[in-house]
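Budget justification aside, the reviewers requested a transparent look at the raw inputs and outputs of the sequence design task funded under Objective 1. We therefore reproduce one unedited record. The lines immediately below are the structure tokens for a 195-residue chain.
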């Protein structure tokens, strides 16, 4: 028993204090104005900024033109270049290409961040839903505007990190998201065997 208690103390020391937060999502935006309204309401926290980026990915899967605009809005300025997608900007070509490739290979990855979506139900969920976030002592500094949150992924064993930067208007934007678009467990497929 002493050995287990000692290991728990070591684990706590290395992980630090874990903080959690839930972001509620009532519905998916269907226009750029709805996306901006949602951003204005929730992207004033790192968790809200991460939610907006994941929602932008979801919109991109369903409506690539609108989704590309939403990705520009939700990404940090350092991940953008001049272009014609939204207000004279677009994602860097390598970033956009990587997103397209990963979402093509793992079309269910985005849904895995919404509560209720699991491999067993084919990563389906209903609105309203939520996203669960955590952070720790090593996440960075909210005050300095650079913070990493971990979003619960229902298709992986561990939450996935996403780094955010607060812009001059107070909105949190995605700076590093490579783990968000990595592969996860495949949906469970039922086999109809009536042989």
């Amino acid at each position: 028993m002493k050995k287990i208690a000692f290991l728990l103390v070591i684990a706590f020391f290395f992980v630090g204090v874990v903080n959690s937060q839930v972001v509620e999502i009532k519905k998916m935006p269907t226009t750029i104005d709805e996306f901006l309204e949602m951003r204005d309401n929730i992207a004033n926290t790192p968790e809200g900024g991460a939610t907006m980026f994941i929602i932008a990915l979801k919109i991109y899967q369903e409506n690539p033109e609108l989704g590309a605009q939403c990705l520009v809005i939700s990404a940090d300025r350092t991940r953008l270049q001049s272009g014609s997608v939204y207000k004279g900007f677009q994602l860097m070509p390598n970033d956009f290409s990587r997103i397209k490739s990963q979402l093509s290979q793992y079309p269910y990855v985005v849904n895995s961040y919404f509560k209720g979506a699991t491999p067993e139900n084919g990563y389906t969920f209903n609105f309203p839903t939520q996203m669960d976030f955590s952070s720790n002592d090593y996440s960075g500094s909210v005050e300095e505007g650079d913070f990493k949150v971990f979003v619960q992924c229902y298709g992986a064993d561990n939450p996935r990190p996403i780094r955010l930067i607060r812009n001059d208007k107070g909105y949190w934007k995605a700076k590093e998201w490579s783990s968000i678009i990595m592969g996860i467990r495949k949906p469970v497929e039922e086999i109809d065997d009536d042989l």
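The two ends are 52 Å apart (CA to CA). Helices lie at 2-15, 32-42, 46-62, 64-74, 93-105. Computational costs for records of this kind are itemized in the attached budget.
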